[in-house]
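pasting for the record
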Amino acid sequence: MLRRLLATSILTAGALAATAVVAAPGDTYRVTGERVNLRAGPSDSANVRGQVLSGEQLVELRRDGNWYGVRVLRTGEEGWVFGNLIEPLATSTLSGGEGGVASAGFGDLSRDFDRLLGSLTQRYGFPLFDRVSPTGGDTLEVKMTEHWLRAGSQDEHLLAAAAIYQMWKNHQNSAPVRVVLLDPRGERYVTIDETQGPALLTVAAD
């Protein structure tokens, strides 16, 4: 279950990095209505994609008035719910970021991206990354924590690298960039490099 939630949230981070997001993406909510419609758009007349039950947890992707565009953490399904039928989850005792959300170290590059990854730090009780270091103009090095290396699968680490790459590319105004995901020892684990041509992905051998 933990790995599924981590992977789902990292995919959300990738979507966040690739699009313009308003309101407070990454905030988590709990469904308070007994059975709440998950709609295709922010309107009572939009098609119903599914339903979420009381207690289900949602992560905010966007907002339109009192309608929340969300991803259901349990299933990964996306849709819109009415704001009166959900409530914010309690803030973790972890702190350090804006509005009580723990910082993930990306605040100087993208506040929205940092808020979303910071919410993961709160949810799972451990940070994913130990250090975020822009180097050499077009290169971003990100060092993983030991806990994240052990708790996440290689696929999840690759998704994280891809989300960071998209965020960094947006930060650099779509110029060719390079992202290096380091393991806790500081050795290269995943590299995405497009500075020499088309993006090349390399993964360190086990």
